[in-house]
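Exercise 4. Each item below gives a protein and its sequence. For each, produce the structure-token representation.

Item: Pilus assembly protein PilP (marine sediment metagenome).
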Amino acid sequence: MKMHKGIAGLVLVGSALLTGCGGDFDDLRVFTEETRARPVGTIEPLPRFKPYEAFTYSATSLRSPFQPPVRIDLTQRQKGSQDIKPDEDRVRQFLEGFNIEGFEMVGILSNQDGMQALIRGADGVHRVEIGDYLGRNHGRIVSIEEGRLDVVEIVPDGEGGWLERPRTLSLPERG
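Answer:
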């Protein structure tokens, strides 16, 4: 008898659930018919994109646009010489890959072998000595003295010759 009551309870619960699922679907049917009656839209095609073209920068040998132009007085302009020219066959040193304006002298080291200078630039502090090269214009260190470093650069004169241009890096004044 208990089993019949259990089955009867299950049948009663099942029928209650099924009657809850039944009912009026008129509102759903109306919504579906209205949606289908609307005009069908079209989807625009995706826009056509131009393929990527790589850019090759060809002005690396020209003056940087971020540096002031060098003023040249044509009346007192020096003529270059064919005797002066950089040694293109020598191995380039690391500091020649940077502009000399980016270097700052920060110290001097001295021992029995001579003097060495400490310069800051190119993401660090570097020790240089006479004969080392720095800067993009074939700059060679010609002397190191207390508080200063002398460099001679070899630059083109614009007419096929070369000029020697002296430059000096000095220790900043401490005040």
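Check: The helical segments are 2-21, 26-37.
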